[in-house]
């Protein structure tokens, strides 16, 4: 069969080199596992599946190793020195008494350890003196699915929903288990199964049974199920006159509903809430606040272990305001007032998953509130499922940004993993990274075969944000595409440069472009919408003088939301780093930039070289061809061709539009679009 991409990075194809195979086989002759919890059983069968696929022989299981050597021992409940550096989900893998011992405090730790062990074999690492210790830095590592009950996915580009609601709960698509395996292999331990623009239907008994069936599949893989909730459900579902969070009947309705959910799903993860945002109902509809709303749900959740994840993605239709500032203005006054069960989930940037954004000023500004981070894996603004954009550098760029909240080194990652503020008042499970899933019913899960790397990278970074983009790319390529060194380096180069190439032809120098509609058509001229902040001109502010949004003290002063050290990096138009220039400044067309070119010439240079670099992506891919599955190779060739055509389309639309304001010729050697 051609490789259809279904098996993701868990392909477990036979290693080509017989000597290498027999080397690994000698130290993996059996699996000794005492205990039979569903999680340990899942770990054991994954090891058997993986080792047999990679190496050939079937690997038997034993209750204990006894005096036998040359096998794998799975051990739950480590203590003493072995437990050093391990949290509840961590693992340690060591060579001991001739065996490879995979240990954890819990069976989930062992499950993660088995995937780590398989990864060693898949990526060609030696097992002889194996000594690995790893614990996740963030406690809730989850995917957010924007899936609707009718099977569509908001901003989904890889087919329909994975969840076959009409067949559930009786029919369990085997794919659910493969989804769980893929997530568990990365350490993802939560999934919000429905869209943040939530349908109240998910809270009906009919749907809760279906969700419970999914939870049953996820449980052996350490994954909890969460629901996005519709804030006005007490009215629409419960028949109450109001959904006011301070109304006793409303509070009782949510308490009863939460208890009912737990009868279906005893280990239910919790609620995700989009409230008073983009037309969704919320506490403000009743004159109440985000705190009133979130704490009401937290009270309903009190008897249970679940959490309430309250999104900070809010902004108002204010023509004189700056959307950039909205979330900070609305949320910072509430710092310290949220119930300990509440986590506030903040998008990486202040606007909306743009190709490049500065980090959200909320990070570091709410020291008494656990802030989770939300990235978008689905490529709403990054070329859907046709453009190649490897997102690890985007995640890392944000996580490594310094908020200076407690002096130098106060990175966004340290806010999110809790090490900066300690979150002392918070409950035990309050650190969070979420990724808006890019999965769908396409056979290869993500539409673009190489977009699987974004799911992979998100999971790995949520586990350990210190991993580098290059190291993650290497792992993914070797596990998924090829281990042939030349090909690995061509594909790695493509992945690592892809995001900057995209930014250059799509939104260079800090241009942003969120506007209403399909979110993937160049319409910089768009100026009509029911809301001013849903037009293009609101964001880029092109005029006869220049381009960009003045967010300094002479403009919206959004920069004042950052600490002085951050502000200083960006507030001066003469030394603001070019990737952020137009985020913060309205820059004259004729202004000389650090590159020696004027703004206009620099913009043209970026648009043209960006679009042209797609050819370089094509060349690199062609060089990797001999080592890549032919069907997969051809699929990507097609997508790169589309990407090239569309990159030119973006370039030309922007350049021709901006030229009307700049009134300058296109610099040599670039050609005027036809
Ligand atoms: C973006 C996206 C919407 C989504 C929203 C959100 O605006 O276009 O489809 O609902 O983000 O994150 O809530």
UniProtKB/TrEMBL annotation:
GO terms for cellular component: extracellular region. It catalyses: Hydrolysis of (1->2)-alpha-D-(4-O-methyl)glucuronosyl links in the main chain of hardwood xylans. InterPro entries: A-glucoronidase_C_sf, GH, Glyco_hydro_67_aGlcAse, Glyco_hydro_67_aGlcAse_N, Glyco_hydro_67_C, Glyco_hydro_67_cat, Hex-like_dom2. GO terms for molecular function: alpha-glucuronidase activity; xylan alpha-1,2-glucuronosidase activity. GO terms for biological process: xylan catabolic process. The keyword Hydrolase applies. Belongs to the glycosyl hydrolase 67 family. Residues 446-668 form the Glycosyl hydrolase family 67 C-terminal domain. Residues 121-445 form the Glycosyl hydrolase family 67 catalytic domain. It holds the Pfam family Glyco_hydro_67C. It comes from the Bacteria. Homodimer. This is Xylan alpha-1,2-glucuronidase. Residues 8-117 form the Alpha glucuronidase N-terminal domain. It is an enzyme of class 3 (hydrolase). Keywords: Carbohydrate metabolism, Glycosidase, Hydrolase, Polysaccharide degradation, Xylan degradation. The active site is at 278 (proton donor), 352 (proton acceptor), 380 (proton acceptor).
């Amino acid at each position: 069969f051609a490789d259809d991409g279904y098996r993701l990075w868990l392909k477990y194809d036979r290693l080509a080199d017989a000597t290498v195979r027999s080397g690994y086989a000698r130290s993996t002759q059996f699996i000794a596992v005492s205990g039979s919890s569903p999680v340990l059983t899942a770990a054991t069968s994954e090891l058997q599946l993986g080792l047999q696929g990679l190496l050939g022989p079937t690997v038997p299981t034993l209750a204990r190793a006894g005096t036998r050597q040359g096998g794998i021992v799975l051990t739950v409940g480590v203590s003493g020195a072995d437990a050093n550096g391990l949290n509840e989900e961590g693992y340690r893998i060591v060579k001991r008494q001739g065996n490879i011992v995979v240990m954890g405090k819990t069976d989930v730790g062992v499950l993660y350890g088995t995937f780590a062990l398989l990864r060693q074999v898949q990526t060609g690492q030696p097992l002889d003196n194996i000594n690995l210790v790893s614990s996740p830095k963030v406690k809730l590592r989850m995917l957010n699915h924007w899936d609707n009950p009718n099977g569509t996915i908001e901003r989904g580009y890889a087919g329909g929903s994975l969840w076959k609601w009409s067949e559930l709960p009786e029919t369990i698509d085997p794919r659910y288990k493969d989804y769980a395996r893929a997530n568990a292999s990365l350490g993802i331990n939560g999934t919000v199964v429905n869209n943040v623009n939530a349908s109240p239907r998910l809270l009906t008994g009919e749907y809760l049974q279906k969700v419970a069936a999914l939870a049953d599949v996820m449980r052996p893989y350490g994954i909890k199920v969460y629901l996005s909730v519709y804030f006005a459900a007490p009215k629409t579902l419960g028949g109450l006159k109001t959904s006011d969070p301070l109304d006793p009947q409303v509070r009782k309705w949510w308490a009863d509903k939460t208890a009912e959910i737990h009868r279906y799903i005893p280990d239910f993860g919790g609620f995700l809430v989009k409230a008073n945002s983009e037309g969704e109902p919320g506490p403000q509809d009743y004159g109440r606040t985000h705190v009133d709303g979130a704490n009401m749900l937290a009270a309903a959740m009190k008897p249970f272990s679940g959490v309430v994840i309250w999104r900070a993605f809010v902004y108002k239709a204010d023509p004189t305001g700056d959307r950039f500032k909205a979330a900070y203005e609305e949320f910072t006054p509430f710092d310290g007032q949220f119930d300990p069960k509440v986590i506030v989930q903040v998008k990486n940037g202040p606007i909306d998953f743009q190709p490049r954004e500065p980090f959200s000023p909320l990070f570091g500004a709410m020291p008494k509130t656990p802030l989770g981070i939300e990235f978008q894996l689905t490529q709403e603004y990054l070329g859907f499922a046709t453009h190649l954009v490897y997102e690890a550098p985007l995640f890392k760029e944000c996580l490594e940004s310094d908020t200076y909240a407690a002096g130098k080194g106060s990175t966004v990652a340290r806010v999110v993993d809790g090490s900066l503020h300690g979150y002392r008042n918070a409950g035990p499970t309050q650190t969070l990274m979420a990724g808006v899933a890019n999965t769908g019913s396409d056979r290869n899960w993500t539409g673009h075969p190489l977009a699987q790397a974004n799911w992979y990278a998100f999971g790995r970074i949520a586990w350990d944000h210190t991993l580098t983009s290059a190291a993650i790319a290497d792992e993914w390529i070797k596990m998924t595409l090829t281990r042939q060194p030349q090909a690995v380096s061509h594909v790695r180069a493509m992945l690592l440069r892809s995001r900057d190439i995209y930014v250059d032809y799509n939104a260079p120098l800090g241009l942003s472009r969120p506007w209403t509609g399909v979110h993937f058509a160049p319409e910089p001229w768009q100026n009509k919408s029911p809301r001013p902040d849903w037009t293009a001109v609101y964001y880029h502010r092109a005029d006869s003088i220049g381009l960009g949004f003045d967010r300094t003290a002479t403009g919206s002063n959004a920069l004042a939301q950052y600490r002085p050290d951050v502000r200083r990096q960006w507030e001066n138009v003469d030394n603001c780093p070019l990737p952020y220039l137009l985020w913060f400044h309205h820059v004259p067309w004729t202004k000389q930039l650090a590159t020696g070119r004027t703004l206009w010439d620099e913009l043209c240079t970026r648009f043209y070289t960006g679009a042209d670099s797609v050819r370089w992506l094509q060349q690199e891919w062609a060089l990797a061809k001999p080592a890549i599955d032919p069907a997969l190779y051809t699929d990507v060739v097609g997508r790169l061709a589309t990407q090239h055509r569309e990159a030119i389309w973006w370039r030309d639309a922007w350049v021709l539009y901006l030229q009307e304001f700049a009134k300058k010729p296109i610099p040599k050697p670039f050609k005027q679009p036809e």
